[in-house]
Amino acid sequence: MTKSQEIPLFPLQLVMFPGGRLDMQIFERRYIDLVTQCMRTETGFGICLLKKGMETVQAGTQQTIHRTGTYANIIDWDQLPNGLLGITVEGSAKFTIEDCWQAESGVLTANVAFSENDSVGKQTIPIDDDFIALTELLQNLESHPLVEQKNLIIDYDNLWDLGWRLAELIPVENAKRQDLLEIDDPWERIENIEQLVSELADES
Known about the structure:
Layout: E1 5-12, E2 21-26, H1 29-41, E3 45-52, E4 64-65, E5 68-79, E6 85-102, E7 108-119, H2 132-142, H3 145-148, H4 159-169, H5 174-182, H6 186-203
Parallel strand pairs: 1-3
Antiparallel strand pairs: 1-7, 2-6, 3-4, 3-5, 5-6, 6-7
Helix pairs in contact: 2-4, 4-6
């Protein structure tokens, strides 16, 4: 892990991985201000899975988040037909939260340590023939219309990409996706994905 860095957080009911893309509708004032600041300074924010609470904070409720998330950068934005601000973000690196607090703006903020390896642009790990079945599964998942819309850039010869994209796209609950995100070893992650895929096949 690298030295600590302060970043704003965006708690969501989903798990994002490096290289993943997500379309978001922004309507809360605190997040409109956050996105505006990020676009002005060309910085991003952390996306974390909610452990407790709703995405929109309501009086008398509290948000609790998992302590491992993914840093995301805004790669596109537009005003949607409903008048809301729409943005597309892309994950770049995994991080672990060291401490977290709510800023005066209402946005959760944290000191985080970024993963030195679990991030886009790191050294490729070649995929061997043992993972042909998983590669073919990812190709099938990528061809789904909803996935095609994301215009994902997938390196099918890189074990990092294979693990990240399958972890996002196979139909499992968020708790299991979070477990996959928290794994630091890409080989261990792909072995866990193989097990999950096998379990899904047995259920079908």
